[in-house]
Design goal:
Blueprint: H1 2-88, E1 100-106, E2 112-118, H2 120-145, H3 151-160, H4 167-171, E3 175-177, E4 183-185, H5 187-196, H6 198-205, H7 210-223, H8 225-228, H9 232-236, H10 238-247, H11 249-267
Antiparallel strand pairs: 1-2, 3-4
Length: 268
């Protein structure tokens, strides 16, 4: 009987020992599996951290670009609005006598120099047109430089560059229209036009002419101001969605699995 009991004791001990081994092996396998996951998760989280960092940098750059565009747009439209308002009602009538004075001098070597001087009123009229032309050209350049950013901006570039259809009329008073709609001034011709036909200059450049057309363009541009620069979604497209996906739910999932591993560690 003792031998039997002894045998039973041994058998019971062996069974218990084997069970402990099985339990330890199961825990070991589970822990090894978690260790592999944790290593992969660490690598994945590092990648996600980089994605998240890059996404923030991209969105920050987008915000900076949008703010810079809107600021320049507002300033450009305001400058042109101011100069157009002054030009549209400007009185180009100047005193003809002494408006344009030409002086010719010959030096000791026989070189001839001709100097043209304008009266105060004529010079003020010329400066008013010059300021408008500079501001108008700045608007054309602004939209032209950004026309690839959005279809709406491209449309604005076309709108402000439409002076070509009246090129002959503008040219008749001393303004030349470039291929992109920008304007250049033949000062001598414009000065003579102002002195000799101020009513025509007023008609071509005033409220029913170029200044009035500019104000119409400005009004249209301002009505589109909040739509000109594209949204981050439309500019970045699927890349923004993908980055947001991986830095949103993926982060939470990784954290949850990490917490599960900590729980396993505590239990065993």
């Amino acid at each position: 009987m003792a031998g039997i009991n002894s045998l039973v004791g041994v058998n019971n001990y062996s069974w218990l020992f084997n069970t402990n081994n099985q339990k330890q092996n199961s825990v070991s396998q589970l822990w090894n599996a978690y260790g592999n996951f944790q290593n992969n998760a660490t690598t994945s989280l590092a990648g996600l951290t980089e994605i998240n960092s890059n996404l923030k940098a991209v969105l920050s750059s987008y915000d900076d670009a949008k703010q810079a565009f809107n600021s320049e747009f507002k300033e450009t439209m305001q400058d042109l609005s101011n100069s157009a308002a002054k030009l549209k009602d400007y009185n180009f009538s100047v005193e003809q006598e002494g408006a344009i004075t030409t002086k010719t001098e010959t030096d000791k070597d026989g070189n001839v120099t001709t100097t043209t001087t304008y009266s105060k009123d004529l010079q003020a009229a010329l400066d008013t047109v010059k300021t408008f032309v500079d501001d108008y050209n700045s608007a054309i350049k602004f939209f032209g430089d950004h026309k690839d950013v959005s279809k709406r901006i491209e449309q604005m570039a076309t709108t402000f560059g439409d002076a070509g259809y009246r090129a002959n009329l503008y040219n008749s008073i001393g303004l030349t229209v470039g291929s992109n709609g920008s304007l250049s001034i033949n000062e001598a011709q414009l000065a003579n036009s102002i002195v000799n036909d101020p009513d025509k200059v007023s008609s071509v450049l005033g409220k029913d002419g170029l200044a009035g057309k500019a104000e119409s363009h400005i009004s249209f541009a301002n009505s589109q101001a909040d739509k000109l620069f594209p949204t981050a979604q439309s500019m970045l497209g699927d890349q923004l969605d993908t980055a947001a996906l991986y830095t949103g739910n993926a982060y939470r999932n990784m954290a949850a699995l990490g917490n599960m591993g900590n729980l396993i560690n505590m239990m065993f």
